[in-house]
């Protein structure tokens, strides 16, 4: 169970803070909810406490895990490329990974899209997914590693420096 003022991660939305724990009547049943303010867009979500695990609500990763994610981004050995995959299939796959709540899945999407951009110009949708993945990773790692979001973004850009410079 999460506590008031605790940072949590809501899949595909990113880091939020539990602002309140409240009870509401829904369909004649009293249900407890987490009221979570999403930091990136200042939006609010209500998550039933009984369903929190099913929707992927979780704690911010620990620093050891965050460092593993950065190391994973730097290891390109698992890059498959996009040969034979059409954009729709990749878009659905990437969307599912972003919704999974698993930080390594989000890192996979970011890494794949950056590496794909080495060979072809990304579409608007691909760029949007890449930006979403970057924001999800940076917001969580900044909290976990107690660094500024821009510092984390710069670390990631440094990992992919050669590729990102080619895009310009």
Q: Any chance you could write out the topology, listing elements then pairs?
A:
Elements: E1 7-10, E2 14-26, E3 29-38, E4 44-48, E5 58-59, H1 63-74, H2 87-100, H3 103-116, H4 124-145, H5 149-159, H6 161-167
Antiparallel strand pairs: 1-2, 1-5, 2-3, 3-4
Tell me what you see in this structure:
With 168 residues, this protein is α+β, with helices and mostly antiparallel strands. The protein folds into 2 domains: 7-59, Thrombin, subunit H; 63-167, Methane Monooxygenase Hydroxylase, Chain G, domain 1 (Up-down Bundle). The protein is 48% helix and 20% strand. It has 6 helices and 5 strands. It has helices at residues 63-74, 87-100, 103-116, 124-145, 149-159, 161-167; strands at residues 7-10, 14-26, 29-38, 44-48, 58-59. A 5-stranded antiparallel sheet has the order 4-3-2-1-5. A hairpin with a 5-residue loop joins β3 (29-38) and β4 (44-48). α2 (87-100) packs parallel to α4 and α3 (103-116) crosses α4 (124-145). The longest helix is centred in the last third of the chain and has 22 residues, at 124-145. The protein is globular, with a radius of gyration of 17 Å. The relative contact order is 0.14. The mean pLDDT is 90.
CATH superfamily of the largest domain, called what? Answer: CarD-like, C-terminal domain
Question: What string gives the helices and strands in order?
Answer: EEEEEHHHHHH
Portion in beta strands: 15-25%
Distance between the termini: 46 Å
User: How large is the count of helical segments?
Assistant: 6
SSE-based structural type: alpha+beta
């Amino acid at each position: 169970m999460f506590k008031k003022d605790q940072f949590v991660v809501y899949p595909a939305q990113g880091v939020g803070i539990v602002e309140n724990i409240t009870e509401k009547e829904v369909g004649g049943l009293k249900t407890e909810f987490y009221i979570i303010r999403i930091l990136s867009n200042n939006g609010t979500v209500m998550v039933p406490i009984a369903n929190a695990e099913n929707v992927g609500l979780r704690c911010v990763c620990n620093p050891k895990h965050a460092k593993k994610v950065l190391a994973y981004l730097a290891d390109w050995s698992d890059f498959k490329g996009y040969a034979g995959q059409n954009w729709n299939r990749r878009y659905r796959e990437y969307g599912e990974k972003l919704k999974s709540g698993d930080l390594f899945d989000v890192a996979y999407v970011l890494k794949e899209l950056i590496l794909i951009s080495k060979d072809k110009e990304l579409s608007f949708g691909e760029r949007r997914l890449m930006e979403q993945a970057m924001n999800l990773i940076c917001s969580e790692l900044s909290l976990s590693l107690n660094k500024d979001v821009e510092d984390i973004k710069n670390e990631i850009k440094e990992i992919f420096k050669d590729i990102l410079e080619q895009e310009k």
